[in-house]
Design goal:
Chains A, B: InterPro entries: DNA-bd_HTH_TetR-type_CS, Homeodomain-like_sf, HTH-type_TetR-like_transc_reg, HTH_TetR, Tet_transcr_reg_TetR-rel_C_sf. Two copies of one chain form a homodimer. Chain A has 240 residues and is mostly helical. Among the domains of chain A are: 118 residues, no CATH class; 45 residues. The longest helix of chain A has 22 residues. Chain A is elongated, with a radius of gyration of 22 Å. At the A-B interface, helix 6, helix 8, helix 9, helix 10 and helix 11 of A face helix 6, helix 8, helix 9, helix 10 and helix 11 of B. The structure holds a DNA duplex (30 and 30 nucleotides).
DNA sequence: CTAGCACCTATAGCGCTGCTATATGAAGTG
DNA sequence: CACTTCATATAGCAGCGCTATAGGTGCTAG
């Protein structure tokens, strides 16, 4: 109907879907709205994308690259934990800027069906947490920390989206963010404590070494040795 | 069609909706399924509940009382923070036991539309956090803590629901739970491994682990394993 | 040049959805 | 009995995701 009759229908469908997803206020977006705006008919949509979810996945993966670009751009500050904070804030900002797209990406939850985008976001976080682990700043396994932080990050973002705009208080985000990061990190921004009741420095060091070994393949050990070594390392770093 | 033709249609509709919501696997629940199971026709539903969402709200508020009952029953342990942990676990357990009902309650997120059940759950948490605050165990305002903890709690539960049953790792829950509670509390139970924040590498991490292992005897490895482990550690830490 | 083929798009419509205009029955009240 | 009020049913609307079928388009082989 409108957007650039020159472009191929596939692109027009993508743009129409993205536009409707970005601007639709509350109600759902139908295939008929999309095809009408794109100036094509239904079978064209299903020829190119299989079904509605396929089209949405395509829109999401485009939106995800935008998200990833935001996550990666201002990453290397030298302080991994500070970068984690920025990734958290960027995640929330993305969700609030494009709530409908965000809801399609992270809010469309069904039992036992894990969207690919969640795994990607998790990997992104884990990557950064690995750097923190290498720097000895992590208290737990990077993978577990990534899952935990992402779950809280999504929970906060969903809660903020569901609130009326005027009530949205970003302090909820920063507070939860710092709580999570503080809890998984070795930061001591709090009244000092003895090491008798928490993780020992052995565990912290083992986690750091584990992450460092996986980041830069050391050739000091043969592959079979390394395998056993890593297993022992895991055993040590998994002990409470 | 089945359930107790004696009962008034309103109750039969509620039970049918609850049953379908509990047993439906993946796909959505339609009004036709509900009315057929209840043995009534469509206008009856709309006469009593206004629309589909009204019926679901009614089911939810019944389910919520079940949820609240679980939250309140084993509450007064004398340790408010311990009670918060139980409320968290009960929340997750409820979500995993009745995922579809939970998704209707907490996962049906739309921009600027806050379900009543969220506010109720928040109030429940805040009430308990107030006790912690009175006992001087709280670091932040109970209201803020409740919002933050609930957001993380919902985020974790949604993430667990979206995972395949066999992959569900409740450690994600306990870890996030303790992170949140620890961060808002005045508890000082942490193993502080104060680390010079110099750039760590494989070597530095290996040296740190080596030192830490010798300082505190880890019993995760047998003595022979430990001997070989230390040798490899030495090989790594002497490289480059 | 034409035949064949692969790709893309449109017409028309199926079965489903949430919902309702209208009508009928039942129950209580003057 | 007449009247009102509440509760249920018949029948159907507009919208949904999706598709069987057919036709148009452009490329390549003979």
């Amino acid at each position: 109907m409108s957007s650039d009759d020159q472009l191929p229908p596939k692109v027009r469908l993508l743009r129409a879907a993205a536009e409707l997803l970005a601007n639709s206020e509350g109600s759902a977006v139908s295939t008929r709205q999309i095809t009408k705006l794109a100036g094509v008919t239904a079978p064209t949509l299903y020829h190119h994308f299989g079904d509605k979810e396929g089209l949405f996945d395509a829109v999401v993966s485009a939106g995800f690259e935008e998200y990833v670009a935001g996550e990666r751009d201002f990453a290397p500050s030298g302080e991994p934990l500070e970068d984690i904070r920025r990734m958290w804030d960027n995640h929330v900002a993305f969700g609030l800027a494009q709530p409908h797209l965000y809801l399609v990406m992270f809010g469309n939850i069904r039992p036992e069906s894990r969207p690919a985008v969640v795994a990607d976001a998790e990997a992104l976080l884990e990557e950064m947490l690995n750097k923190a682990a290498i720097a000895g700043q992590l208290n737990v396994q990077p993978r577990e920390a990534a899952r935990s932080i992402l779950a809280a990050n999504v929970g906060v973002t969903l809660m903020l989206i569901s609130e009326p705009v005027e009530d949205r208080n970003l302090e909820l985000s920063t507070m939860t963010r710092d709580s999570m990061i503080f809890a998984v990190s070795t930061e001591t921004a709090r009244g000092a404590a003895a090491e008798d009741s928490g993780k020992s420095s052995v565990v912290v060091a083992a986690i750091a070494l584990n992450a460092a070994l996986q980041a830069s393949h050391s050739d000091q050990l043969s592959s079979s040795e390394l395998k056993l070594f890593l297993e022992w390392l895991h055993r040590i770093s998994s002990s409470s």
